[in-house]
Amino acid sequence: MDNLKAELLRGLWYVACPGAEIKPGAMTGKKLMGDMVLLGRDKAGKVFALRDICPHRGIPLRHGKFDGETVQCCYHGWRFDTAGVCVDIPSTHEDQTIDFSKITCGAYPVVEQQGLIWVYFAANGESPEEGRQPQPPMLPDFSVDQGPALHIMQHFVCSVDHAALGLMDPTHAAFVHTSWWFKKNAAKLRPKRKLFEPSELGWAMVRHKLPPQNIAYKLLGDDVTTEIRYMLPGLRIEHIKGSKHSVVGLTTITPVSEDETEVRQMFWASMGWIGPFKPLIRHLMNVFLGQDRRVVIQQREGLEYNPKLMLINDADTQGRWWMQLKREWSASQAEGREFVNPVRGRELRWMS
Question: Which residue range or ranges hold the Rieske domain (predicted)?
C-alpha cells in the first residue's frame, strides 16, 4: 500500500466492460491486469476474450479484421477462431504439414451476466471451476439478463490499492465530495457507528435502516434498509431495499496495470421511471467519481517520495482488512490451500 504500484491478484473474475460496449461482429482491445486482451462478440452474440497478441510476430490482433467468426491478423493474415485456435495461415503451401490446432494466441474464460462482461485471470493456468471463484458474483434482486440502468467509467492514475482504499474510506466525503447537492460540511461532522461482519471474499456493513426523512429513500417504500459489501478483487456492492423497490449500486476497480485502474460505477433499479433523469444522474455520478479521481492524482505527488503511510483504528480499519485479504489470498494461492477470511466481525466508530 505504501508504494505507487500494487500486487495484482489472479485466480479471480474482473469486470472488463458493460456488454453493451461490444456489438455483434465487433471487437475491441484493452489492457487489463497488465495483459493485452481482445474482447469480441461473434455473429451468434456470444462474447469471447483472447490474448491480443499474434503468436507469429507479436502484433496486436485488434489491428486486424473480424468477420464474426474468425479474427485475422493485419500483418500476415493468420486467422484465429473465438477460442484462440489458429485456423488458417495463408502463406503455407501444399507441401507444408502444419497442425494449425496446435497454434493458439491464448484465450480467457469470459462470462456475460447482468449486462457485464467478466474475464477470469488464472493464477496458474487453472480453469475457473478448478479455482476458488468459479463464477462472478450475482447481484441481488435482478435477473441474469438485466443490465445496469446507469453506468460510468473513469481512468484512475493510481494503483488498485489506493483506488480501493478511497472506495471504502468512510471519512473523506466531507472534505472531497464538497458539491452543494451532496450537503457535506467538514465543520458539521457527526458520530457514526456501524456493525461489520465477514462475507464472501471480504466483509459487509450489516444491513441497517436508512433515515426515513430522506425523500430519495421514500421512493423505495417503507422500512428502507441497506447493506454494503466489499469483496476481492475490488468490488463494492450496495443493496438498498424498501417495501416497493430496490436499487443495487456496484463499483468495480479493475487494474489496467500495477499503477493504473479503471473504476466503474453502475446502478440497477426496479423502478421503471428513471429514464428521463438518466442524463442528470449520470452527470452527478461523474462529478462525484471525478472528485475521487482528482484526489488520488494529487495523492500521487506525495507517493512519489515513498512515504511511510499511517492507518488509524476504526476510520481506516476497512483499509487494513483490504490489505489483510490480499495477503491471505496470495498466501493461499502460493501454498495451495483454501482461502481463510481474516476479517472478524466488530463495530466501527468514526466521525463523518
Answer: 14-119
